[in-house]
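The records we work with from here on pair a chain with its fold. Here is one such record, which you should read through line by line:
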Amino acid sequence: MKESISRDIQSRKLKSDLELERISFYQSLIHELESSDDNISTRALSLALGGVTVLRKAEYDIVTSGEDVFVLQEMGSPRRCGGQGDILAGCTATAMHWTRKVIVFISFSYHLVTFA
């Protein structure tokens, strides 16, 4: 029993250390790419991470995958509660996962039809 608890604690510490390492990496990357122009620094971050889509929440929101940069300047709610960024991240990741599944299915179906 004690051995199992000890392994669980070690596993959690390792995960925590890896997460701190990732955070440190991203913070140093953001610091290196910092620019007075938020559009440029957000685009540079996306490109530095391999062209991933970056959604930057701030006074105005920026979405980029390294090529196109979209700036959303619509006024949001003046009273925002904590945790909205977490909810946004979860909803965005879910939508992207669903979209990827549909694209893979359509691609697979296309190949079945063309080879038939």
Q: What stands out?
A: The mean pLDDT is 77. Residues 78-116 form one domain.
